[in-house]
Amino acid sequence: MDYDPPALFGKRLIELRKKLNWSQEHLALESGLARSYLGEVERGKRNIALINICVLAHTLGVAPSALLDFGTPAPKPAKKKQSGND
């Protein structure tokens, strides 16, 4: 399985929203974000902006970091290859 942060974020958002028994529509009304936008975020189709992460966290009553807690460690980034022209 590939590491896909937008998809993982979307799954986490769904999890936190459902803990409150909220629909996407309710979250949209409470947060001021469009329901269609939230649907795309939950499906991992949008790369959400930091400001919107903070808006959603505030609306859900959690710290912004809670939305980024995917439960699995991020993979190590690949090392850059040396070009030899340094």
From TrEMBL:
The keyword DNA-binding applies. SMART domains: HTH_XRE (SM00530). This is HTH cro/C1-type domain-containing protein. Keywords: DNA-binding, Transcription, Transcription regulation. PROSITE patterns: HTH_CROC1. The lineage of its organism: Bacteria, Pseudomonadati, Pseudomonadota, Betaproteobacteria, Burkholderiales. Pfam families: HTH_3. The keyword Coiled coil does not apply. Transmembrane segments: none annotated. Residues 13-67 form the HTH cro/C1-type domain. InterPro entries: Cro/C1-type_HTH, Lambda_DNA-bd_dom_sf, TransReg_Diox_bact_type.
